[in-house]
Write a structure and sequence with these properties.
The complex is a heterodimer of chains A (159) and B (501).
Chain A: E1 7-8, H1 11-42, H2 48-74, E2 76-79, E3 83-88, E4 92-99, E5 105-109, H3 112-116, E6 119-125, E7 130-137, H4 138-151
Antiparallel strand pairs in A: 1-2, 2-3, 3-4, 5-6, 6-7
Helix pairs in contact in A: 1-2
Chain B: H1 12-36, H2 46-49, H3 51-73, E1 75-79, E2 82-87, E3 93-98, E4 102-109, E5 118-125, E6 136-142, H4 143-162, H5 168-175, E7 186-190, H6 193-202, H7 205-220, H8 226-237, H9 241-267, E8 271-274, E9 278-283, E10 288-294, E11 298-305, H10 307-312, E12 314-321, E13 331-339, H11 343-350, E14 361-362, H12 370-373, H13 376-389, H14 391-394, H15 400-414, E15 416-420, E16 423-429, E17 433-439, E18 443-451, H16 452-457, E19 459-468, E20 471-481, H17 482-495
Antiparallel strand pairs in B: 1-2, 2-3, 4-5, 4-10, 5-6, 7-8, 8-9, 9-10, 11-12, 11-17, 12-13, 14-15, 15-16, 16-17, 18-19, 19-20
Classes of the chains: A alpha+beta (159), B alpha+beta (501).
Chain lengths: 159, 501
């Protein structure tokens, strides 16, 4: 077996994902309320109410509690001298290996929610693919970006 | 500095540009005319009756004028070892392309070019992120002018070589090139007329024509008298099965002949030549195309064995190159059709450093169920629905189960990989069997995927990401033993840090 990777992403990332989950659940709840109003107006069968509630509860459980937890537990990364290795995935665990010599550039970016939590995501681009580590403490992300760009030295003629 | 003579394109550019814009706008125009033109009516005012024709006329004239302006304002010249292009009337566009960034010049001779001995030149650069800006196209210049661009480029590169390396990385790639340029090309491959026939018969061209007919019918369906046709057809069917069969046969024959014609137009005189640095592919009957692929830009070689072509004893060889603009497929058919028993001989000739043995490591038996198991997820609901709604006959859909399982087993038996030195070979099958030959330094990143069930059985899917133009080519072997997957990962990891082979 290949060794387990060393670093996890910030626990705050879990909070952010839960927040995303809340937002999606609230949107779904609004839709459900809309449907509820329609059921009331057009006198559709009563059992649509409990069905809606059940769907909403299940959706909320999965997307606010379970999925972020599993995703966070799975997310690991390691930046070594000559390669970057990532591991993530919900149902399917994906491990990615990116040699340093293939890295073309590194970006950090943050949206409003990430900024509020002092987080940033870091994107590592090769000539063909882009790989993202989604939630790192900002200082850590900046440090990592610096480190990768020092280590990365693309061989020009290889692309 | 040297003389900076500015050159213009040939005047035919104006016509080509006009027709190009017209071609893009033709369908809406036709619809417009059909919708308005024949209403007749007669309001008494001629300009209302013929409004659409007037719009059409004005449009064509304005397109033509803009074509002329485009041609008039377009200039190119050579300065400071750069190809400089200036164009545009109100917004002046300047595009300076350094010669040492130019990877290749691609030539196309269309039907408008040939009577005047002209050629369209497309400049391919080593653009990575700024490929959009760094591409140039000279729509129509004489062959002498094209030659001049080539010599200017060669001279500039020679000058660069003589200079001390100031901007390190820019020059390294040039220094690696042999000083004495080998310009004599060797002919590596060409297609016979029999090859062309097989290519036409087995290509998707037949499907393209049929779908083209379908699109035509859907576009102009309202104009066709369907009711009348229906009556005609039902009368026709009464003539008997034989006549219908003959008609269908004739229809298919027509489609086939069309397909052969299309293939002939695009692939006539298909030739592959190469020297030390480039592969040059020439093809086409009316529109002659010449594409140059620098050898060092080639990312991977793929042998594709389509089952139908295999029946005829043929296969296809494609290459993925890092060149090519945005939205352009950079999967190039190096040998569109080639006898299967000759594939390796040809490949050995073109790519002597490739290791071409059959990949020996098959996917173990524990991976087999994964090749068809996931399909039950969609099969069962579909079969269930069909059986429910069309009760007795819907049961026939059960026949799909053995077909899917057989395909899965076939895919499993085909899947294999091999590691030889710094080369990874993947073999995998969708319907066609593909064998991808990849050098370690061309693999941009690798992925290993495992679902819960994979982990329980100890299998994994391995994907190698290869640059292909602006996109990615994913070569993958599914459901292999996790030990093999890790072996590939370790191989990729170890040498991954060395730049050289």
């Amino acid at each position: 077996m290949r060794a387990q990777l060393a670093n996890r992403i910030s626990p705050k990332g879990l909070k952010v994902w839960r927040l995303y989950g809340w937002i999606q659940t609230i949107i779904l709840a609004l839709v459900a309320i809309g449907v509820g109003v329609l059921v009331y107006i057009f006198e559709w069968p009563w059992w649509i109410y409990p069905l809606e509630a059940a769907v909403l509860l299940l959706f909320g459980y999965f997307i606010i509690i379970l999925f972020p937890k599993v995703r966070w537990m799975r997310w690991r990364y390691e930046v070594r001298e000559s390669e970057i290795e990532l591991q993530h995935g919900l149902f399917i665990v994906k491990r990615t290996l990116i040699p340093m010599v293939r890295v073309q550039h590194v970006d950090t970016s943050q949206g409003p929610i990430l900024r509020k939590y002092g987080l940033a995501e870091i994107s590592i681009s090769t000539a063909a693919t882009v790989h993202t580590i989604p939630a790192l403490i900002m200082a850590e992300a900046d440090e990592l970006r610096g480190r990768i760009s020092v280590l990365a030295r693309v061989a020009e003629d290889d692309v | 500095m040297m003389s900076e003579q500015r050159y213009k394109l040939h005047w035919i550019t104006a016509i080509i540009e006009t027709l190009k814009t017209l071609k893009e706008a033709i369908l809406p125009l036709v619809v417009l005319i059909f919708a308005n033109g024949f209403k007749g009516g007669g309001t008494g005012l001629w300009y209302v009756d013929y409004l659409s024709f007037i719009i059409f006329g004005v449009l064509i004239i304005s397109l033509f004028v803009s074509g002329i302006i485009k041609w008039k304002r377009f200039e190119y010249w050579f300065e400071d070892d750069e190809l400089r292009i200036e164009s545009g009337l109100f917004v002046k566009k300047k595009r300076y392309i350094p010669f040492d960034r130019i990877q290749s010049l691609d030539y196309t001779e269309g039907i408008f070019h040939r009577p005047f001995g002209l050629v369209k030149v497309k400049v391919e650069t080593a653009g990575s992120s700024n490929a959009k800006q760094a591409e140039g196209e000279l729509t129509a210049i004489t062959k002498e002018a094209a030659k001049r661009v080539e010599t200017e480029m060669a001279e500039a590169k020679k000058r660069q070589r003589g200079m001390p390396a100031e901007e390190g990385e820019m020059v390294t790639s040039i220094e690696e090139m042999p000083i004495e340029e080998e310009l004599n090309f060797r002919k590596m491959f060409s297609m016979t007329s029999k090859d062309l026939l097989v290519l036409a018969t087995t290509s998707g061209g037949v499907g393209v024509i049929l779908s083209g007919v379908a699109i035509f019918l859907s576009q102009f369906g309202e104009l066709l008298p369907f009711e009348w046709m229906f009556e005609e057809i039902s009368a026709f069917i009464k003539f008997g099965v034989l006549i219908v069969a003959v008609a269908v046969f004739l229809g298919l024959l027509g489609v086939w002949i069309l397909s052969v014609g299309m293939t002939l137009l695009s692939h006539y005189n298909f030739t592959v030549e190469m020297n030390k640095e480039d592969i040059v592919i020439t093809r086409g009957l009316l529109e002659k195309k010449k594409v140059t692929v620098p050898l060092k830009r080639i990312q991977s070689v793929v042998v594709v064995e389509n089952p139908v072509r295999k029946l005829f004893g043929y296969a296809t060889v494609s290459i993925h190159s890092a060149g090519g603009g945005i939205g352009q497929s950079s999967k190039i058919n190096l040998f569109p059709i080639v006898k299967r028993n000759r594939v390796m001989t040809y490949l050995e000739d073109v790519f002597p450093d490739l290791y071409l043995e059959e990949p020996a490591n098959r996917v173990t038996a524990k991976g087999r169920p994964f090749y068809y198991r996931i399909d039950f997820l969609w099969m069962l609901p579909v079969i269930g629905a069909l059986t429910y709604f069309f009760f007795p006959y819907g049961l026939f859909s059960l026949a799909i189960i053995p077909v899917i399982i057989a395909l899965g087993i076939w895919q499993h038996r085909s899947a294999a990989y091999d590691i030889t030195g710094n080369q990874l070979t993947f073999r995998f099958r969708g319907i066609s069997l593909q064998t991808a030959y990849m050098k370690k330094k061309r693999i941009q990143s690798m992925e290993m995927k495992q679902s819960y069930f994979h982990r329980r059985k100890g299998v994994a899917t391995v994907i190698a990401n290869i640059k292909s133009g602006m996109g990615v080519f994913h070569a993958s072997v599914h459901h292999m033993d996790v030990k093999d997957a890790e072996r590939i990962f370790n191989w990729y990891e170890k040498g991954g840090s060395t730049i050289d082979e």
